[in-house]
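User: Please predict the structure of the protein below. I'd like the answer in structure-token form so I can feed it into my own downstream comparison script.

Assistant: Understood. Taking the following sequence of 258 residues as input:
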Amino acid sequence: MPAALALLLTGLALSMEKTPRLTEPAYVASPAAIPADTVTGWVVDANDWLDRGFLGVRHKQSAVTNADLGEPLVILTDSGSVIYPVTEKSPMGPMMDNVRLMPFAEQRVTVTGRFVTRDRERGLIINGITRAAQAGQARAFPAREIADARVLGRVTALSCWLGRADTGAAHAACARAHAEAGEPLIVVSDSGYIYYPVTRDTTAGSPDFAKLIKYCEKKVVVSGTCINRGKARGVVVDRVVAYTPDESDETLRPEDKK
């Protein structure tokens, strides 16, 4: 081999060794190929279930009526946890997805979609919903009530918090707008639990968030009766006051000190 050609090939080999190798991009499945989250449970009215444990077809008309008035329909899992379905297809942003659930009120269903985890709670953006293949037996979850309890947390709009984790003073006007449109306001405790404001006077019509609305996106101390049913939490609101740093931790529930 001529010396000039050998020198050229040697230089080319050295330059190739110094050039970083390009790697193939990681394979990303198309959205249709990504397995959807699936959950099976009962579609229940959040207020009636937390308050009185209403579950099953004989409560369907009550659930539909309450959903029309603004109560959220939720999915009660077999373990007793509650999943709040939200939709992203509203001009106002995330909203409760009562429309998709209403035909299945108080029925056992299988739902596919995308879970959204916020602290210790889950929301679900629904792709599809069908009646469960096996109806199953509705399980009773006795309630544990704690009178004269106090919960430390932040008042926010349920769908905004689940759908986008919107929180803080910048979102106060949005939370109020959602409440005025009939969306639930909730108290998210410092330990990341949703406390749904239970209305016991259901003859009053639509849910009463009057005690919470002026505190949108503010830290508060809520006094009232706490309800634990299954793994879900509610509170019958007696009084709401703005949180102050000198609030004694001794007045708070143990799980909200975490």
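That's the full token string. Residues 30 and 36 are 12 Å apart (CA to CA).
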